[in-house]
Amino acid sequence: MTSDHAPRAAQAPLPDRQGNHPPSSSDHACTGASAAQRDLRPVLDSIVGFAVIVTDATGTVTAWNRGAELAFGWSEEEMRGRAPHAIHTPEDLAAGRLEADAALAGRDGRAIADGWYVRKNGERFWMSGDVTPLSDACGRAAGHVRALRDRTVQKQSELQLRRHNRTLEEEVAQRTRERDRIWRHSPDPLAVMRTDGLLLAVNPAWNSLLGYRSAELIGTLFFERVHPEDVACARAALARSARMPAQRFEIRCRSAAGAWRHFAWNITVEDGLVYASGRDVTAERKLAEQEMQANEMRLRLALDAGAMAAWHWDIRAAQADWIYGMDALHGLTPEQAQRSRTLRGYLALVHPEDRDALRCAMRDALHSVSDFQAEYRIVRADGQIRWVEARARILFDDTGEPIQYSGLCTDISERKRTERDLRFLARASAEIASVEGDQHMLQRVAQLAVPDFADWCCVDLLHKDSALERIAIAHADPDKVHAAWELHRRYPPDPQMPRGVWNVARSGKPEIITNMSDNLLENAISDPERLAMLRRLGFRSYIGVPIASQSGVLGVLSFISAESGRVYSEADLELAQDLARRAATAMENARLYRELQHSDRAKDVFLATLAHELRNPLAPIANSLALMQLRPEDAAVAAHARQVIGRQVGQFTRLVDDLLDMSRINTGKIEIKTEDTDLIRILEAALETSRPHIEAAGHALTIDFGAAPAPLCADPVRLAQVFSNLLNNAAKYTNPGGRIALLLEHADGEYRVRVRDNGVGISPRMLQNVFTIFTQVTHPVERSQGGLGIGLALVDGLVKMHGGRVEAFSEGVGRGSEFIVHLPCAGVAIPPAPLAAPAPGNALSDTTPMRLLVVDDNTDAADTIAELLRLLGNEVRVAHDGNDALALLQEFTPDAALLDIGLPDMDGYTLARCVREREDGRDMRLIALTGWGQLDDRERAAAAGFDDHWVKPVDLERLRGLCSADRGGLGADGKNRLAP
């Protein structure tokens, strides 16, 4: 058991795998433990055979090595910082095993921790080990190290052995009784004799089988009744029994009547006495001879079915006896086979590279007197090279001397080919996983295919323009590779051919030609020179498989056999398809990784831009506030500051709204409210929004809407947003005094709206990604116009929701750009979103004062909105968390409450439910005041009992409307008018 217990760990708590050390209460004088911890950690991580668990003085796990993860199934991250109760059985926990181990280790310096433990999956298993105490550099107790090793198998063996011993004791007594019965009643003769053959005891069967009474036999020699020709065999068996545990031999014994019968004897020697048991096999020998003849016939049938051949090798004569099938296996005539039955003659049939290895294997088997097994190649008379496996069992004579090998030879060429193919697949898969770059990876795969799987391998890539590009030709002979490239240059694959790489690329289906006969080549190729070149290459068999992913066919892998003579099968086709699938998966993963990297870079650019764009409105707001502080009495300064702050807050809100719109489009939650409208009116609305920007830059605007009206079923607000975004972009990215055109066309059942400018233009590289979210066309710093890079993505999403599409065109940087919006004339059939019913009139006047409660943990936000409401003539109370609000309601009953959602002690939803449970809160108007404005946020607010949902910031007009007759969405009947 001592080998199961790990060396005692250093007396210090351990760091985790990231090098973090558990907190220590030690003072600076005890900091020496940290160095020990760092030194010990790599050692424990290298111990995989032992599960090492380190706990601090409170019993909390501070280190959990790789061996513990493998043994228990819990990772270090899951166990660190908690007591290791999960790995102990409930019985041990109830019995206080952990505390007892700790106490014993503290007292004796070590405690045995053998016992049953529990894996993460609930399985129990036995572990052996010990618990040792830890102390810091000052000698104070710092925890324990539990080092354990899985000994479940040994424990189960121990328990089984105990059970087995009890069973054996019972069996010994039973067998003693049975032995006496067997001795008396056995039908076979039993005897006890000395090693010289003197009989000491015989059983009654000697009388029933051979007619001898016990008195006639005891004191006589066993050999007196053995056939003279078999006496030597019997004496040799008794002589060997002194040094070998058991002997079996067959001899003829004479009966009392003088008849000879065949007996099979088994003898063993114990304490200097020979115990012998015989069995009359006279009848069995006759049956055995008959069975041998039948077995020989069955053997021949089995050898034929398994493509095997049988042989004997006479060790003394050094001569082979080819029993059956050996001449056919080696492709020899009977005369040739006769000359090959000596060792020299047989080795002449073996491949020259394998002769020495086979000779050594045969010699080693003879020297070690053991069975023989070898795999080697033979060269058949017809020149074929085949793999053969030879297996043989060694046979001994009656004296125990080896006399013969009896064996089989099996043609294992197919198995060897399969192993070779699997090795090729494994190497190719490793290259696919490790080599960067699609072309380089596929070129390496082609090189690995030669010559194990194919004599030739070609790789063609299919480009987006449907062009095939050959990127690799592989062969073991570089001169042939050069010739093949020349053939490909002169005669590239014909797209009109019914078979070959183009057919595989078009159909996406594999292709196999098992025998590329000369007739096949003649029918497929009409050019005599090309046909002659292909004949010189000697193609025999062909496989073509597509490299295909979910996005389509990426290329074609072609494998061709030639000088090897290999004929491809369906199994080979499956292997080629497997390889192509792995290559396609690697290419697809690489593409996705590149896209992910691009998205990640775009995200970083977006975040930097967002920070910049958010600071832009904050700067004039801060400056305006500073002006108001410096000149508080100047009404003109205050008026100008209010205008600036209002504009910048609007800009701030538009940035957030654009982000939310893009998010709603991506999640399918944006509201599209369609109605019968006119596209010209929508364009005029967009112009009204964008015209100030166009005029401010001094651009010349050309408008052409045509003469006819443009009826459309669409969301006019969202489409106006689309066209104003495009016009604003044109204004921003065109030098002052530029030209902008807005044109409407009607053709082919669709409207086409063109926004054209002569501005900075778009590079071809950026043009393909211009509608991707967070993408911004790169311009010099002096041309930067701001924005988050989501405007065009928003345009693309909104147009697609209307069943249309957007195109971008530019001849390059400095050449201007054009965006074309295509919209179906019939519009898109989107059911209109349900609208809130208009609230009927209210008896209250617009200036009726109200009692209001404002709850927001942001003190500035709560105080400012409360002050605004007071200035509007209302009585307002303020609370900064849910509990304060509930306490305030004990003495103040408001008409309405504006509740923030993100409160510190309870969220606004919980607070709303608490208010509704109050008698005076059932008719109170509850308004959710939050920065969350998605559809599910509104639905959640309605479910919590809110009457309305306002998204921050709330403008002054909405606050004025709070006391109006409409009450901002609450009807006179007091019912909830909250709509998304």
Automatic annotation (TrEMBL):
Q: Which residues form the Histidine kinase domain?
A: 609-827
Which positions does the record annotate as the modified residue 4-aspartylphosphate?
D900
Q: Where in the cell is it found?
A: Cell inner membrane
Residue span(s) of domain Response regulatory: 851-967
Q: Which InterPro entries match?
A: CheY-like_superfamily (IPR011006), GAF (IPR003018), GAF-like_dom_sf (IPR029016), HATPase_C_sf (IPR036890), HATPase_dom (IPR003594), His_kinase_dom (IPR005467), HisK_dim/P_dom (IPR003661), HisK_dim/P_sf (IPR036097)
Among Gene3D superfamilies, the record links this protein to: 1.10.287.130, 2.10.70.100, 3.30.450.40, 3.40.50.2300, Histidine kinase-like ATPase, C-terminal domain, PAS domain
One Pfam family in the UniProt entry: PAS_3
Q: Report the domain of life of the source organism.
A: Bacteria
Known PANTHER family for this protein?
Answer: HYBRID SIGNAL TRANSDUCTION HISTIDINE KINASE C (PTHR43547:SF2), TWO-COMPONENT HISTIDINE KINASE (PTHR43547)
Q: SUPFAM superfamilies this protein is in?
A: ATPase domain of HSP90 chaperone/DNA topoisomerase II/histidine kinase (SSF55874), CheY-like (SSF52172), GAF domain-like (SSF55781), Homodimeric domain of signal transducing histidine kinase (SSF47384), PYP-like sensor domain (PAS domain) (SSF55785)
The protein, known as: histidine kinase
Gene Ontology terms for molecular function: nucleotide binding; phosphorelay sensor kinase activity
- The organism encoding this protein is Noviherbaspirillum pedocola
Instruction: Spell out the reaction equation it catalyses.
Output: ATP + protein L-histidine = ADP + protein N-phospho-L-histidine
